[in-house]
Amino acid sequence: MAPKKAKKKVEGGSNVFSMFEQTQIQEFKEAFTIMDQNRDGFIDKADLRDTFAALGRLNVKNEELEDMVKEAPGPINFTVFLTMFGEKLKGTDPEETILNAFKIFDPEGKGHIKADYIKEMLMTQEGRFSQEEINQMFAAFPPDVSGNLDYKNLCYVITHGEEKD
Question: Binding site annotation covers 44?
Answer without folding.
Answer: no
